[in-house]
Amino acid sequence: MKIQLWSIGKSHDPSIKAGIDDFTKRIGRYFPVEWTLLPPLKNAASLPPGELKKKEGEALRSQMAHLKDFYLVSLDENGKQLSSEGLARFLQGRTADGGKDLVFLVGG
User: Fold this and answer.
1) CA-wise closest residue to 107 among 67, 59, 71, 74
2) Which one, out of 3, 12, 19, 103, has a CA that is 20 to 30 A from the CA of 82?
């Protein structure tokens, strides 16, 4: 099973990048990890929020078209929060269920 982390936006702020590098190093001991930074949409700041979400969704769907068999996890501030132990249990469960590649999506 491979873990892919997708993020929409510009390159990460140095303070955030340190956390990303630490997480990638830790999880990389157990699974292959790959980060994909998807470019922000042109004129994103001038789009209404609903239109921006729609266009980001279209861009993500086209990016996913090349994946064969994967399990998508959308990360959202309103979603279920997991502890480190909870994340470990989730990953173990996904591995036991056939080991499809995981794509964690961090929205724009």
Assistant:
1) 74
2) 12
Q: What's this model's pTM, rounded to 2 decimal places?
A: 0.80
HSE of 75, CA atoms in CB hemisphere, 13 A: 15
Digits of tens for pLDDT over the chain (108 positions)? 999 998 887 666 787 788 888 888 999 999 999 988 888 888 888 889 889 888 888 888 888 888 888 999 988 888 889 998 999 899 999 988 777 899 998 866
